[in-house]
Amino acid sequence: MACQSSDELKELVREARICTKEGKVADYIPELGKANPNDLSIAINYPDGNCYSAGDIEKKISLQSISKVISLALVLIDRGYNYVFERVGMEPTGDPFNSIAKLESTAPTKPLNPMINAGALVVTHMIKGNSVEDRFQRLLQFVKDLANDQSVTYSKSVASSEFETAHLNRALSYFLKQHSIINEDVEQLLDLYTKQCAIEMNCLDLSRIGLIFAMDGVDPQTKKQLIPNDVARICKTFMVTCGMYNASGEFAIKIGIPAKSGVSGGIMGAVPGKFGIGIFGPALDERGNSIAGIRLLELLSKNYQLSMF
After folding, report:
1. Sign of the torsion formed by the C-alpha atoms of 281, 284, 290 and 294
2. Phi, psi of 210 (to 5 degrees)
3. Confidence grade of residue 133 (pLDDT, cut at 50, 70, 90)
4. What's the pLDDT tens digit per position in 58-84?
5. Can you tell me the distance from the alpha carbon of 120 to that of 125, in angstroms, rounded to the nearest whole number?
6. Phi, psi (rounded to 5 degrees) for 289
7. 26, 101, 161, 260 — which has fewest CB within 10 A?
8. How far, rounded to the nearest angstrom, does the alpha carbon of residue 144 sit from its chain's CA centroid?
């Protein structure tokens, strides 16, 4: 699908790009540390098939934590509401996304929500399949269908870089295993999880997935229900309450749309009933969100009254 360059979006990107010098790329994952901190791009995808963009929207980005929303949707389809939420909670947290603190203080022990790393690991653990490869291919095919792009794959170099440096996620996984929330080999789970986070696509694909969530799980072009209505609703609610790490409350007040960020600098937005947004800006703020991406969304939300509140 072609995406039209927009002068209006170019101007907003130019204004927001000034913020990039205040952020830094996620160099604790060596492969992500290679990104150009000045990059900033956006694609907006409408139900009628129109798409508008600015910046280098063809540049590939790994989903990182954006994948948590998609794996949650797949697992809710696979396992159902009760099964999933017996094992992971629904509450926002003010702690960093990779914190172990609340796991120790919550009784019975279970991660507070599916958007923090502990919760995302539990969700990935629930993906059905007979092997890591089988489970990963199911998730990848689901992503391809949502993006309407069968060429979507994952970055082996990013997955490998994350697997080798996933010490905190290993610690979280062993803690969860000790409390019988997960019951598979930790290295296998980390293999699957790091591949999930390394699924890569461009801003156009990202905006298209955002559009599917915005339209309650329906592909507006084919009219197919790719995600059940209620599953899409649950995912969007988590995007509002937990999608921007421990900046979600501030984001809801200033911008007010369902969105999910990743430490690659990606942000996927879903403006309910209107359009999907894909943003890439790898310079991050101290909470792990794209600093220029958030500024860009602030400008968009203010100019077009996008807030759902």
Report:
1. negative
2. -60, -40
3. very high
4. 999 999 999 999 999 999 999 999 999
5. 8
6. -100, 150
7. 101
8. 15
Q: What is the mean pLDDT of residues 96-110?
A: 67
Cβ count near 105 (within 10 Å)? 7
Q: Distance of alpha carbon 186 from its chain centroid, rounded?
A: 22
Query: Facing residues of 201 across strands?
Result: 61
The owner of tokens 């901190």 is: 37
Per-residue burial over 224-258, b if 16 or more Cβ lie within 10 Å, else e, is eebbeeebbebbbebbbbbbbbbbbeebbeebbbb
C-beta separation of 216 from 42 below 8 A: no
- pLDDT over 70, % of the chain: 95
Six token digits for residue 133? 């490869």
Catalytic positions: 65, 68, 193, 245, 263
CA–CA distance from 245 to each of 285, 288, 305 (Å)? 11, 8, 23
pLDDT tens profile 211-270: 999 999 999 999 999 999 999 999 999 999 999 988 999 999 999 999 999 999 999 999
